[in-house]
Amino acid sequence: QVQLVESGGGLVQAGGSVRLSCAASGRISRINLMGWYRQAPGKQRELVATISSGDSTNYADSVKGRFTISRDNAKNTVCLQMNSLQPEDTAVYYCNARDRFTLTNYWGQGTQVTVSS
Fold first, then answer.
1. CA separation for the pair 64, 22 (Å, rounded)
2. Residue 13 has pLDDT above 90, yes or no
């Protein structure tokens, strides 16, 4: 099992920045891919960004150039730096980790990010 605990988030004005962090614990050695997803009210959960154990990154088109995902393997954390936030970025953001052997996805409890116009 893998446990994920997110921190950060909150209320920010449009154009502002927020940094999210996710601390992983448990069977860390089994994780290869970590990332962030988000879910806005009435919408499906969508991918925001992922980062592999080799630091390869992938971003949704809507956040490219504004968001940066990073990973500290020594601290078992993954962060999402979000700049130039817009009201459409308002959502609950979830940390995700994937087991490299079983492909099981683990999720954090989610953290709310609200961007006011």
1. 20
2. yes
